[in-house]
Amino acid sequence: MSLSTGTRGETVPTVPPVSPAADTADTHAADGVDVGALLERGRTLSTPVLRAAVDRLASPMDTVAAYHFGWIDAQGRPSDADGGKAVRPALALLSAEAAGAAPEVGVPGAVAVELVHNFSLLHDDLMDGDEQRRHRDTVWKVHGPAQAILVGDALFALANEVLLEIGTVEAGRATRRLTTASRRLIDGQAQDISYEHRERVTVEECLEMEGNKTGALLACAVSIGAVLGGADDRTADTLEAYGYHLGLAFQAVDDLLGIWGDPESTGKQTWSDLRQRKKSLPVVAALADGGEAGRRLGELLAADAKSNDFDSFSEEEFALRAALIEEAGGREWTSQEARRQHAVAVEALDDVDLPARVRAQLVALADFVVVRRR
């Protein structure tokens, strides 16, 4: 599948399949691996424990959290709304199997990582002013900014509680990895916000920010189950390397979707990252190009930063910026970077002794991350 050049958000930028077995469906079978089944297993095993953790929260935080996770609607009625791709829980369960343990051993790690991930989403939505997530109003829009902050904080605390109450040495090691990943995630968010107010950001700075914001928690997800299963630090560190580079590939695709993604698939506005003045990989790569399109883009973005009526820009104005990013090579460079990071992630698995089935499943999940619509 090639990258198309739509300029009004109709098309979805996906990266060409990394193997002949991969197709462009949201969940696909690659080399005999049913990725959809892996994701569903992650949901099935982790959701009851996740719900039990959320039930510990005081009212109304428990209800607000339930809305965020898609378990109820804004009126409190049961709902089966989209709860996300569940990549992190799937990785945590596979991580336990990588250490020779049962997948259930990884469930507390899966839940803890998912709680931290959703803590970050609640705060990110508020900081970015996003009004939609997964085709529904965001928590701050429905329940107010204060509840979004409080519930995010509560989920972060719950994540550590879920792990530490296991009471084992392995649980302590897992918590240390989770807290380190959480701190790096917050570092990445702080970098992301600061870059919005800078005229220029280097590609290296952008990759560092995205490695913190996305790579660190995915790296934790794919090592935390192994740690709970008794794996040594070398094994966990190698799995983290896979997860870190997978996170960079994941974020590169997210950056493409953030500009050219179809709102019907992403649940966000057209040109969503451009509306928020994000210095994402396509933008940064385009500005670094040095050609006429990159120069024009830089002038427009510098003027945007000083504009008082940026929020009233027309679709055509955002389309122009997207077209300049593409003309300057930002879109193609980012798709190539997603493929490169995917390759580095898969190569990292060669440095650890894994059951063949688990390795095939980790490779299939990496393929899914790079070839997706949302």
Automatic annotation (TrEMBL):
<dbReference type="InterPro" id="IPR000092">
    <property type="entry name" value="Polyprenyl_synt"/>
</dbReference>
<keyword id="KW-0479">Metal-binding</keyword>
<dbReference type="InterPro" id="IPR033749">
    <property type="entry name" value="Polyprenyl_synt_CS"/>
</dbReference>
<feature type="region of interest" description="Disordered">
    <location>
        <begin position="1"/>
        <end position="27"/>
    </location>
</feature>
<dbReference type="Pfam" id="PF00348">
    <property type="entry name" value="polyprenyl_synt"/>
</dbReference>
<protein>
    <submittedName>
        <fullName>Polyprenyl synthetase family protein</fullName>
    </submittedName>
</protein>
<keyword id="KW-0808">Transferase</keyword>
<dbReference type="InterPro" id="IPR008949">
    <property type="entry name" value="Isoprenoid_synthase_dom_sf"/>
</dbReference>
<keyword id="KW-0460">Magnesium</keyword>
<comment type="similarity">
    <text>Belongs to the FPP/GGPP synthase family.</text>
</comment>
